[in-house]
Write a structure and sequence with these properties.
Helix content: over 70%
Shape: globular
Distance between the termini: 59 Å
CATH class of the largest domain: Mainly Alpha
Number of domains: 2
Radius of gyration: 21 Å
Structural class: mainly alpha
Length: about 230
């Protein structure tokens, strides 16, 4: 199948999704809108889920471009704040697409969601390198994703005139308080756990240790960070 036909199918499905939600993206409707036969859709995407994943990837491109072009500053926590706001803003601007990507429980992530997770992982890693992460990078990822996605889906479910922007801000600050510390790297509040997370983040760049030594040290640092996670101030 020519690339132009594939693109036309994706664009037709994306338009149907925006207009009528996921239920509007039927094989018959997409075929009619794209001007192709139904078998052509299955040959290109395998099944309907394959088509939906392609639509999600297509729609996610503009969001990822915005997030990747978001300037990186010397304050990784501030960068995470901006990333959160961009994520929520994308969801409210494209509710059907966002719900397609994040609304359905599934084992693993869709290709589009995986790309977003990689960007978030980079943000979290920079906070760890700065010595400002009070939990492991893995836990921080899960906490930010759960809170951010949950808040966005909740706001999408509300009538527009009932959406309170301060809810997102409050959730954002609660998560940031739970995973970060404002103490300078020289005197990290939380002592060993915070220091262990920071050292673990830069360990892969250490060249004076063998692979086996790095693996052993990584295990020790993970144990210190996990056993001594710093309780958030409250």
């Amino acid at each position: 199948m020519a690339a132009s036909n594939r693109d036309r199918i994706i664009e037709a499905a994306a338009a149907l999704l925006a207009e009528g939600g996921r239920d509007a993206v039927s094989t018959r409707a997409v075929s009619a809108a794209a001007g192709v036969q139904a078998p052509a859709i299955y040959r290109a995407f395998g099944d309907k889920q394959g088509l939906l994943d392609a639509v999600a990837d297509h729609g996610f491109v503009s969001y990822l471009r915005g997030k990747q072009s978001n300037p990186v500053t010397d304050d990784p926590v501030a960068d995470l704040r901006r990333g959160w706001d961009l994520h929520v803003g994308f969801g409210l601007a494209h509710p059907a697409l966002y719900s397609l990507i994040y609304g359905d429980p599934r084992i693993g992530e869709s290709p589009a969601a995986r790309q977003g997770s990689e960007i978030l992982a980079g943000m979290i890693h920079r906070i760890a390198e700065a010595g400002r992460l009070r939990v492991t990078e893995e836990r921080a990822m899960v906490m930010v994703q759960a809170a951010g996605r949950g808040m966005t889906l909740t706001l999408i479910s509300l009538p527009e005139d009932q959406r309170d922007p301060s809810l997102s801000e409050a959730a954002r600050e609660a998560v940031i308080a739970a995973i970060t510390t404002d103490a300078p790297p020289e005197e990290p509040r939380g002592g060993a756990p915070v220091a262990a997370v920071a050292l673990r983040a830069v360990l892969p760049r250490t060249t004076v240790l063998t692979a086996a030594e790095r693996a052993l040290l990584a295990e020790w640092l993970d144990r210190i960070a996990t056993a001594g996670e710093v309780p958030a101030a409250g």
